[in-house]
Write a structure and sequence with these properties.
Helices cover about 35% and strands about 15% of the residues. By secondary structure, the protein is α/β, with parallel strands linked by helices. The protein has one domain (about 1-160): Alpha-Beta Barrel (TIM Barrel), CATH 3.20.20.30. The strands form two sheets. It has a four-stranded parallel sheet, covered by helices on one side. A two-stranded antiparallel ribbon has the order 3-4. Helix 2 (about 25-40) packs across helix 4 and helix 4 runs parallel beside helix 5. It is globular. The termini are far apart. The relative contact order is 0.13.
Length: about 190
């Protein structure tokens, strides 16, 4: 929050929040980011991922298989968006999460959600459920397959034009603008 207070235009987000319900429940993540977005409208983004064993397993003793963590991540995205947009209390009974909740102080503007991950499954989920994809630890030349998977998924959604991938060490943005020094679309 100190960085947001001292700047006027920079968008800041948590990279990467594993909202898979092992250490943090998606509703807690929704509350935290809604509060930040209320204080700094239009300048907050959320990036979710499946977590890392060195963080989740060592602190909780739990480490579900990748398939379950992927399911938890996509369900968390849906639950977080529901919390940010619901007009009244809502019941959530999903495969991994149950909640009865209403967020009184909603973000004034939609908070973009990005998915972090290296493989084609997360790229697909980013295209289908999120606003962008962050390919952690890869350079742009490694994005060709995840980008295709992400584009295939986003084509199935209502607004596929909102999603765009760029390089620069795997940074991916939904804005469609090029990164500094980038000469062509990847």
């Amino acid at each position: 929050t100190a960085f947001l207070e001292r700047t006027q235009r920079v968008t800041v987000g948590g990279m990467v929040v594993p909202a898979i319900g092992i250490r943090r429940h998606p509703i807690d993540v929704a509350l935290d980011f809604a509060s930040l977005a209320r204080l700094h409208p239009g300048r907050v983004a959320l990036c979710v991922g499946t977590g890392e064993a060195m963080n989740e397993q060592t602190t909780t003793g739990l480490w579900p298989p990748l398939r379950e963590r992927m399911e938890r991540t996509t369900e968390a995205i849906e639950l977080i968006r529901k919390a940010w947009t619901a007009d009244d209390y809502f019941h959530w009974k999903g495969k991994h999460f149950t909640s009865f909740f209403y967020l009184y102080d909603k973000p004034e503007q939609p908070i973009p959600i990005y998915c972090a991950g290296n493989g084609p499954k997360m790229a697909y989920n980013a295209g289908y459920y999120a606003d962008g994809h962050v390919a952690v630890g890869h350079r742009g030349q490694h994005l060709h397959r995840p980008r295709r998977d992400r584009n295939d998924a986003s084509a199935r959604r209502r607004h596929p034009d909102r999603r765009d991938a760029t390089g620069d060490n795997g940074a991916v943005r939904a804005t469609g603008h090029r990164l500094p020094g980038e000469t062509h679309r990847r």
